[in-house]
């Protein structure tokens, strides 16, 4: 079945190199104008690290563009070392994505989902949350969004299964990039030479209990993702007995590559694999792409007369 729709951190000091002088006039805006907002000092009586963390996230909301550690520390008048520690911590937790080539960071969708439940109460559920909820509701299986974080795939939003037998995942949880369905899907736009380097590094750093990865097999899987926009793992090596489908989301809608996945007991997922892939594809095309769903299956319609586990 074909679905028809459209880094690695090196050294911290490398991100602390000088940049061109930036003027401050309080007007805000991204780097196109080469102007950064001059932020007020934090109020007294607060935990400084907590205040700085929140203000860094607010900085990105104002800046609306990737930014380096130096740019952030200058704009917020923070010590560069303190800024770097907070930024790398947010990156490690999956809230910021790092571009090693440009030495810049940008918030991931995990930041957005922090307050999504509040927004849904006030303004209704957004399209991406509706997509996850729909897949979860109809399939009854654990549904997740994942992004790449260095050599890992990291879950940024999870809807738990409603069935008795379930695959339990938590937001922030990581899975090895080359050993997980979500990780393989996230490599879709990474070139083969870079993937081969990642394989060599992963093998060099593997534990004794991990099997040696074969670059040819990894590349075959990624090539399948490039052609079909999804991958199906019938028997997870990370969660034995579980099957997982990971599907790429349109790159134009997200600042970093993002995948949606559904996983559960193999005996439940495998017989419905093709139906799940078709169902998810239509939801992505219609719900996320246009905002209107044309495939409003009920749980009973999806599973049929036999029901589900």
Topology:
Elements: E1 23-24, E2 35-36, H1 48-63, H2 69-76, H3 80-92, E3 96-99, E4 104-107, H4 109-113, H5 116-123, H6 127-139, E5 142-149, E6 152-159, E7 174-176, H7 181-186, H8 192-205, H9 215-228, E8 230-233, E9 242-248, E10 258-265, H10 266-269, H11 273-288, H12 299-303
Parallel strand pairs: 1-2
Antiparallel strand pairs: 3-4, 5-6, 5-10, 6-7, 8-9, 9-10
Helix pairs in contact: 1-3, 2-3, 6-11
What class would the helix/strand composition place it in?
A: alpha+beta
CATH architecture of the largest domain: 2-Layer Sandwich
Whole-angstrom Rg: 21 Å
The residue-averaged pLDDT reads 79
Instruction: Using the coordinates shown, work out and report the CATH topology of the largest domain.
Output: Beta-Lactamase
How many separate helices?
12
Strand content is 15-25%
Unreliable stretches (pLDDT < 50, length at least 5) are: 3-36, 291-295
Assembly state of the chains shown: single chain
**CATH superfamily annotation of the largest domain:** GAF domain
Largest sheet: 6 strands, antiparallel
Percent of residues in helices:
25-40%
Describe the global form. Answer: globular
What's the number of structural domains? 2
Care to count the β-strands?
10
CATH class of the largest domain: Alpha Beta
Gap between N and C termini? 25 Å
């Amino acid at each position: 079945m074909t679905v028809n729709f459209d880094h690695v951190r090196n050294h911290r000091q490398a991100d602390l190199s000088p940049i061109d002088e930036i003027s401050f006039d309080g007007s805000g805006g991204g780097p196109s104008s080469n102007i950064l907002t001059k932020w007020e000092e934090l109020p007294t009586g607060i935990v400084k690290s907590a205040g700085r963390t929140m203000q860094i996230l607010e900085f990105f909301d104002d800046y609306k563009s990737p930014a380096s550690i130096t740019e952030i520390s200058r704009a917020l008048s923070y010590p560069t070392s303190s800024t770097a520690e907070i930024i790398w911590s947010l990156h490690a937790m999956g809230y910021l994505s790092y571009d090693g080539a440009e030495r810049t960071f940008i918030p991931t969708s995990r930041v957005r989902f922090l307050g999504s439940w509040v927004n849904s109460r006030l303004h209704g559920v957004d399209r991406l949350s509706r997509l996850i909820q729909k897949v979860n509701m109809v399939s009854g299986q654990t549904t997740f969004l994942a992004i790449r974080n260095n050599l890992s795939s990291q879950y940024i939003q999870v809807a738990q299964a409603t069935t008795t037998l379930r695959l339990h995942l938590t937001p922030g949880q990581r899975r090895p990039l080359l050993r997980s369905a979500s990780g393989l899907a996230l490599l879709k736009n990474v070139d083969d030479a870079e993937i081969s380097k990642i394989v060599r590094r992963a093998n060099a750093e593997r534990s004794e209990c991990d099997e040696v990865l074969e670059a040819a097999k990894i590349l075959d899987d990624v090539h399948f993702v490039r052609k079909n926009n999804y991958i199906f793992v019938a028997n997870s090596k990370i969660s034995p007995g579980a099957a997982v489908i990971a599907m790429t989301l349109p790159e134009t809608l997200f600042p970093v590559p993002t995948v949606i996945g559904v996983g559960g007991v193999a005996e439940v997922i495998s017989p419905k694999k093709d139906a799940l892939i078709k169902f998810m594809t239509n939801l992505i095309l219609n719900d996320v792409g246009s905002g209107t769903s044309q495939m409003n299956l009920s749980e009973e319609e999806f599973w049929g007369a036999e029901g589900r586990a």
